């Protein structure tokens, strides 16, 4: 080998970026990882005499999970080293049997759909309320949630996302009351909310303290944890703990990383002892977002969102749009990256999104918002007229066949334009955030193909579309 490609690639990236607002939550600050960051190889051990086993813990791993459970107030908590996707799939398959129906929020992560394929489940959807003017999925309607449960009493469990990638929240406590009224299990994908518990006066209420039965969290997103470190909380007696543990043993690696487990425990402990840092950063964020909104800059802010009909907002999510100036989210992300050496988490057609965590310093947040302000006033002076690109709501597509059947069916690779009217064999997913536009078994329509083209033309990566603009459909021959 001529060089270490990954190491040199990361070194190049680090040399180009001064400040980042993307996951993981430690933001590359090795000191926050404490002992683990200084002695990586030292903590990389295996199951042997004197250690423990994540799948059957009896020693210090059992103690660590017990202590994490105490912090979050759960009935029982599990460390998950295969990411929250593994926790989600484990939880859904543990609470269902093949053929069961579950109700899911349509803008959920692809891992929920993967659980339905693996578990041979039927799906019913509840769509978020879409705000066309601002191109945002707002909160789900709790009235529609109850209607769904009344019309389909066979639904076994409900899976909802809280908060969304954009920080938008619904009334999770009321949702739990509705779901339990009809004796169903409520699972909350709180992948973006492992920090909520630690700043309850300034942030939306956490799902684990709101009546949810199961909560999955990506500690690596908003806590100072290494990537793939996650948690699965069981919060009620409605959940069969034996089934959960059985599925975790099946789906997690048989060689769980002690480095990741140490990192999960360390991140929860660090956050528990540094709540003041999160409170400080939330206060800075709120002040700066209000300042920019007062200047006419479209930065999402909780009071404004609530006035627009949204239930609540997580003010650790920097969500910025200059679409009214004809600047796409991807263009804004590139300006921040190459002019200001600031890297955000993701961008779509209208917004660029970044994570504020307790590991950030106030000057980091100030730098981001000062850069946004400078970009805005420079662009507003420009006489160049640009086309405004709009985000479209999630399509409500007809199902030609069950998702699992389509996923395993014989398929063919064809041009996008030829796929209209055919049945998708794979997911089509703008990534991030990993929310499918089209799922296997759904009939592809022209509007969706045109929207995919718009995203590709504007630098959005779309999984399921290859470099030649081809995709896979079910071979009906």
Q: What is the topology?
A:
Layout: H1 5-16, E1 19-21, H2 35-38, H3 60-72, E2 76-80, H4 83-94, E3 101-105, H5 110-119, E4 122-126, E5 130-131, E6 136-137, H6 142-151, E7 155-161, E8 168-169, H7 172-181, E9 185-189, E10 214-217, H8 219-222, E11 230-234, H9 241-251, H10 258-273, H11 275-294, E12 298-299, H12 302-307, E13 312-313, E14 317-321, H13 329-340, E15 342-344, E16 346-347, E17 351-355, H14 362-381, H15 403-408, E18 411-415, E19 429-430, H16 446-457, E20 462-463, E21 470-474
Parallel strand pairs: 1-15, 3-4, 3-7, 7-9, 9-10
Antiparallel strand pairs: 2-11, 5-6, 8-13, 10-11, 12-14, 14-17, 16-17, 18-21, 19-20
Q: What characteristics describe this protein?
A:
seven-stranded mixed β-sheet; 21 strands; alpha/beta; four-stranded antiparallel β-sheet; Molybdopterin biosynthesis moea protein, domain 2; Aspartate Aminotransferase, domain 1; Aspartate Aminotransferase, domain 2
């Amino acid at each position: 080998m001529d060089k270490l490609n990954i190491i040199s690639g990361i070194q190049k990236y680090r040399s180009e970026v001064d400040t980042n607002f993307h996951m993981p939550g430690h933001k590359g600050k090795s000191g926050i990882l404490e002992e683990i960051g200084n002695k990586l190889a030292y903590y990389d051990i295996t199951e042997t005499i004197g250690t423990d086993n994540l799948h059957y813990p009896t020693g210090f791993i059992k103690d660590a999970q017990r202590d994490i459970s105490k912090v979050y107030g759960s009935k029982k908590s599990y460390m998950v080293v295969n990411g929250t996707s593994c926790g989600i799939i484990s939880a859904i398959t543990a609470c269902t049997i093949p053929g069961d129906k579950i109700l899911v929020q349509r803008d959920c992560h692809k891992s929920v759909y993967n659980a339905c394929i693996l578990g041979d489940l039927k799906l019913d959807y509840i769509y978020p309320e879409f705000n066309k003017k601002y191109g945002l999925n707002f909160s789900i309607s709790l009235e529609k949630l109850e209607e769904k449960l009344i019309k389909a009493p066979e639904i076994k469990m409900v899976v909802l996302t809280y908060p969304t990638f954009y920080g938008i929240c619904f009334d999770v406590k009321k949702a739990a009351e509705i779901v339990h009224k009809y004796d169903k299990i409520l699972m909350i994908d709180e992948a973006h909310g492992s920090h909520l518990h630690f700043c309850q006066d300034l942030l939306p209420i956490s799902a684990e303290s709101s009546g949810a039965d199961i909560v999955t969290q990506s500690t690596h997103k908003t806590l100072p944890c290494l990537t793939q470190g996650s948690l699965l909380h069981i919060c009620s007696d409605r959940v069969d703990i034996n089934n959960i543990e059985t599925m975790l043993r099946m789906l997690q690696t048989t060689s769980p990383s002690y480095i990741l487990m140490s990192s999960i425990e360390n991140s929860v402990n660090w956050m528990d002892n540094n709540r003041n840092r999160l409170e400080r950063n939330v206060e800075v964020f709120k002040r700066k977002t209000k300042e920019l909104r007062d200047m006419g800059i479209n930065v999402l802010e909780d009071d404004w969102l609530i006035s627009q009909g949204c239930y609540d907002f997580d003010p650790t999510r920097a969500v910025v749009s200059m679409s009214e100036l004809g600047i796409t989210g991807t263009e804004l992300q590139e300006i921040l990256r190459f002019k200001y050496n600031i890297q955000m988490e993701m961008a779509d057609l209208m917004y660029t999104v970044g994570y504020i965590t307790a590991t950030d310093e106030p000057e980091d947040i100030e730098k981001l918002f000062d850069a946004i302000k400078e970009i805005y006033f420079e662009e507003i002076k420009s006489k160049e007229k640009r086309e405004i690109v709009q985000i479209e709501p999630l399509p409500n597509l007809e199902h030609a066949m069950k998702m699992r059947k389509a996923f395993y069916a014989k398929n063919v690779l064809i041009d996008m334009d030829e796929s209209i009217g055919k049945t998708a064999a794979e997911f089509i997913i703008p990534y991030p955030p990993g929310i499918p536009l089209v799922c296997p078994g759904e009939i592809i329509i022209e509007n969706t193909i045109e929207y995919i083209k718009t995203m590709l033309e504007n630098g959005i990566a779309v999984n399921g579309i290859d470099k030649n603009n081809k995709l896979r459909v079910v071979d009906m021959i």
